[in-house]
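User: Here's a chain of 204 residues. Predict its fold as tokens.
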Amino acid sequence: MIYSVRGTLVLAQPGTAVVECGGVGYQCSISLTTLSTLPPAGSEVRLFTYLAVREDAVELFGFYSREELDCFKLLTGVNGVGNKLALVLLSDFTADRLALMIASGDAKGLTAAPGVGNKLAQRIVLELKDKVGAFGAAGPDLRAAAAAAQGGGNLSEAAAALVALGYSQSDAAAALREGSEEQSVEDLIKLGLKRLSARMNRGG
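Assistant: Prediction complete.
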């Protein structure tokens, strides 16, 4: 198993990166998220890797972080999610974002990725909801917010109000991650809207 490759970045384009190590160029299939983190060609880079071996092909996948690699492995463990579709999901959402969406049960949000229908999105959430903490991408605060948003209390009511305003469950959970049950529902909604507005102003 090839754990990672480290060397000179020879080529970086949508879907592909080539890293030269010891005179050998390793072609890696990558997500758009990984592509966005890569330095200019000629720079030194390290990618965590996953080697997929099939009867008709051998393919190396590269990831900018261990968390993205772990998320990829979890996704491909779901029936109906192949390597290519997992890369599509990781191109549309970061590992952090995917973990939060799954933890908060936001199957609808997952359908924004090409090739992910309602049934598959629900299956991903069902099978991975209790596993996303395994790679720790979302962080304890986001996972706690997701859980609180689904439970009872003021955080749950505030999250429901944000969803009613048109935001996704995962967006609502993320926006309320700094809130607490001691705050009023009204104050939590204001906090959530402030966070969501700031995020939109930053372009996502």
